[in-house]
Amino acid sequence: MLKLALSSLWARRLTATLTMLAVAISVTLLLGVERVRTQARESFASTVSGTDLIVGARSGQVNLLLYSVFRLGNPTNNVGWDAYQEIAKLRGIAWTIPLSLGDSHKGFRVLGTSGDYFKYLRYGRNQPLQLSEGRPFTTPFEAVLGAEVAKKLRYRLGQSIVIAHGAGNTSFSLHDNLPFKVVGILAPTGTPVDRTVHVPLAGIEAIHLGWDSGRHSKSVTAEQALAQDLTPKTITAFMVGLNQRILAFQLQRTINTWLSEPLMAILPGAALQELWSLMSVAETALSVIAGFVVVAGLIGMLTTLLAGLNERRRELAILRSLGARPLHLFALLALEAAALTTAGLLVGVLLLYGAEALAMPWLLDRYGLQLMLSWPSERELWLLALVWISGLVIGLLPAWRAYRYSLSDGMSIRL
Q: Which residues pair with 96 in a beta bridge?
């Protein structure tokens, strides 16, 4: 019976192929949305790893997370350097990473930090930062570029770059009297680190020497700047690593009630979950749209089978005359629907992997989204099983109609 069903589909291969492709494309879209949603969430959640607390001026935890980790937006206030040093000496703190934002370079954010940034910052599954070229900065006027910055701007080691005041794509206030030398380029991480220019905190202080009411003197030379005290007065935020994670809530409470200035400490994991929940509406909408596309594909298959059934009534009547029973006709149509659905699933999965392999470099380069080729997850297998069962159920309608056709009905000619 299966051989007969396949032969029947081959005899109508053009229609069958188009029907199968409709199912395949809908399956590709369904699994593609599910995979992008899942891996985007994993990539999103792994932007920062191994950091127990992030401390900044008192505001909302999502706002603090956005500007400290994702380099989006601006802080409501800064953190005093004295408060940072006092907190860094608290019992239980293993390391801290100071962060200073506010400048940019050709549309990319500039981050002032210390050498501990390259030593302690982790992403993904506790992966450390790696340099693809060069070394970390050691003097105030050296810079380490994120992978995307170096690629987009085609920078190489030894080149000089000029930092602009402000975080916009265009700035008319350039710190061109104190350029920075590129001494290192980080390996790609798929995180905002790739789109960041890293410079020392002392360098940030140096380029702002002589500022008065938002204006600065461009006559300051590198030698004059180095002769000054370049200790920061304020920073934007800082990351904290603890000796024991059980101390996180205790230290969070201590920092949130800091007396000398209003500060806030957040747990990165909790803040990431809150931020992701804000985007859950779009996530749900994509899944619903993909589900409707699958339904449309299956309805198209049903329409094709029903339309073809009316044209095949004489063929079915001949099968009846050759000894086929109504149950045989029922099985024939059900097997055809199962074959189309199965082929659609297989082709859809192949299209998914092909599209994913082609899109991976583009998504990483343009959006920083790191996809990975992997076997279908348990949820994806459940979705495939659901589509397959739905295809079988839909195939029962034309099979039932074929079952009810009688020999005399199939051989008669209707006027």
A: 240
Q: How far is CA 198 from the centre of its chain?
A: 23
Whole-number average pLDDT of the chain: 81
DSSP helix, strand, coil percent of the chain (3-state; round to 5): 55, 15, 30
pLDDT exceeds cutoff 60 at 341:
yes
Per-residue three-class SS string for 146-190: CHHHHHHHCCCCCCEECCEECCCCCCCCECCCCCEEEEEEECCCC
Give me 345's structure tokens. 């699933």
| H/E stretch holding 53 | strand 53-57
Cα–Cα distance between 363 and 372 in angstroms, integer?
11
Residue whose tokens read 């699958």 = 294
Would you call 221 exposed, middle or buried from its count of C-beta atoms within 10 A (0-12, 13-18, 19+)? Answer: exposed
| pTM of the model as a whole | 0.71
Q: Which of helix, strand or coil describes residue 240?
A: strand
- How many Å apart are CA 228 and CA 187, to the nearest integer? 34
Cα 294 from Cα 28, distance rounded (Å): 9
Identify the helix (H) or strand (E) that includes residue 96. Answer: strand 93-105
Q: What are phi and psi of 237, to 5 degrees?
A: -165, 180
Q: pLDDT tens, 102-120? A: 889 988 999 999 999 999 9
* Four-residue CA torsion sign, 56, 81, 102, 47: negative
